[in-house]
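Hi R.,

Here are the chain sequences for the assembly we discussed:
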Amino acid sequence: MERVKRLVLDVLKPHNPNPLEFARALVSLCVGYEVRLVVDEMDENTESIILEISAHDIDYELIAEKIKEMGGSIHSIDEVEVVNTSKDEEE
Amino acid sequence: MISRIKTFLRLTHASKITRRYFVTNGFDGALTMLGLNMAFYYKQLVDIHVALGACFGTAVALMMSGFSSAYISETAERRKDLHDLEQAMIQNMEESDHGYAARWVPYLIALVNGLSPFLISLLIISPLWLSTIGIDLPLSPIETTLLLSFLMIFFLGLYSSRISDQFWLWAGIRALIVAIITSGIIWLAR
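And here is the predicted structure of the full complex:
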């Protein structure tokens, strides 16, 4: 079974919520999520951020939905780390 | 639900606006009731039912005016902000928190803007109502109403001092000075 362990996303978001609130909202989605956020560029109304998310099994749809809810849009998926584990290992 | 409202307030900086509207429109309500009752006092209007009806009608009008004016202006402001953000983000944001905030925050601000003068007015005119149901007051109903008006105006001054971090007594007295000047003008025109 495939598990997504790490994702790097290029996201455009409004200034509000700020990077701290944005990262906190993503981390609160699931226990075990780790988020690293780097502000890449900033203009009058928006900022480009690089999001690095690590977890045991990342739910991309959930992440994408939360980003959209906060007013952001995913420009690209820059890096993905996926592992294939057997059912026994999962258990 | 509460956390969503908090998010909307944070996104739109609406807490500051609602606080400001509460004071300004509450002050409007209190000062209007003061003016009406001051006029009743000087004209020696004896029929409390008429005074109560006039004050209640004015309070309702203030509420409707506060609600509609804030709703119209805030909707326009929020729509413009959302449109600007959509232009910058190059995407539709109706389904985001920003979109929901743009639709719901005007209602919240309008509610505060409408209810603050209405509730403050109701509190001020409560002695008139108590008098109509036969409850005796130490002072005449109009005099008690005037006293409550000054008191509410003073308290609104105190509340504004909490926002601006000014000395509370000075803020209260400054609001009272406005009430005294208003009373003076009505006295001159009596």
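The CA atoms of residues 20 and 26 of chain A lie 10 Å apart. Chain A is about 25% helix and 45% strand.

Let me know if anything looks off.

Best,
T.
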